[in-house]
Amino acid sequence: MPAPHIVVFSDDASMPPSHHAKQDKGKAPQGYHQRTLTLAAQQHRLTIAWMPYRCCVFNTHSPYGLSIDDGDSERLPRAVFARFIAAGSLQELTFSLSVLHAFTACGVPVLNQARTIERTVDKGLCAHILQRHHIPIPLSITCASPQHIHAIRQTYPLKTFVYKPLFGAQGKGLQKIRPNDPIPQQKDTQGVWHMQEYIESDAEQGWFQDWRVFIVDGKIVSMMRRKSRTWITNVSQGALCIPDYDHDIGATALNAARCLLTDYAGIDIIRNRQKRPLVLEVNSIPAWQGIEQKTTPKIAASLITMAKKRMEDPSR
Questions:
Q1: How far apart are the first and last CA of the chain?
Q2: Which of 29, 171, 285, 298 qualifies as a FRET site for 155, CA 20 to 30 Å off?
Q3: Which residue intervals of the chain are DSSP H helices?
Q4: What φ, ψ does residue 260 adopt, rounded to 5°?
């Protein structure tokens, strides 16, 4: 069987072990992201396969030292997407990232590359890189000792912070830590604390808001404002989505995406009470179902167009 043009790696538990767009016996792809990417690829006459990382094998008998279960071991796909990396053991996470590194080493465009995922999924490293590139962000601290947290709180005794799981997503596990509140215990943090200053947004009274900017290939594809009656504004937590282009927000998002070397990204930005944009998070494996509920559905098409450009010129 020839290798597909594009392989999308995802450890989503709801996915079958392997999904080839042309070999699913007539069944439609499952899930919004899988369906929209597959349809966009088909419009370009590209074959696309969805599979977990475990379908890859480091095999020194193969020409590339790497092969895929349901593909031709003599050929590799022409592009790879990293759609999802599930939580797992250190060995499993290392294997998934090593697969992406290996495809890059073999000259296959990987979107996003492992180095980008490593820089963004770790909130502490991401904040460090943003700060080094003079991207405006809230005060942040990441450490493996609660003594450092206590020291920063003594320096800023009136500040409220937000504890975020280091590898968290979709607003899960967030805790607002007011000046007299205890910090999460070590057993609940897996030994590492990431604390970000809580920012009061410029929303009208009774509302909380921030922006999600979706960037593909250095261009803004979609932008929305997220409004919520609670301080957690993730769409997965019930926030309202409002199409709203803001020039300053967009410029800040583009700078953040550029310094983290992203091919595509979802950037979360808040305006503080002084109207200054601050980057809250950079997501290198972002979802787009929520943002396309209120904007023109074009993200999957933009992703496939970018992949096709990289296939034709991997140096881009």
A1: 29
A2: 171
A3: 32-43, 90-105, 114-121, 123-132, 146-155, 186-189, 247-259, 289-292, 299-312
A4: -95, 5
- Degrees, nearest 5: CA angle 281-134-166: 30
User: Any idea which residue has 């109207």 for tokens?
Assistant: 275
The upper half-sphere exposure of residue 44, i.e. CA atoms within 13 Å in the direction of its Cβ, equals 21
The DSSP letter of residue 24 is S
Q: What is the pLDDT of residues 166-211, one digit of tens each?
A: 776 666 778 899 998 998 888 888 888 999 999 998 888 889 999 9
Count Cβ atoms below 10 Å from residue 281 Cβ, excluding itself: 22
Say if residues 251 and 230 touch (Cβ distance below 8 Å).
no
Cα(9)–Cα(53) distance, integer angstroms: 6
pTM over 0.85: yes
Answer whether the bond into residue 112 is a cis peptide, omega within 30°: yes
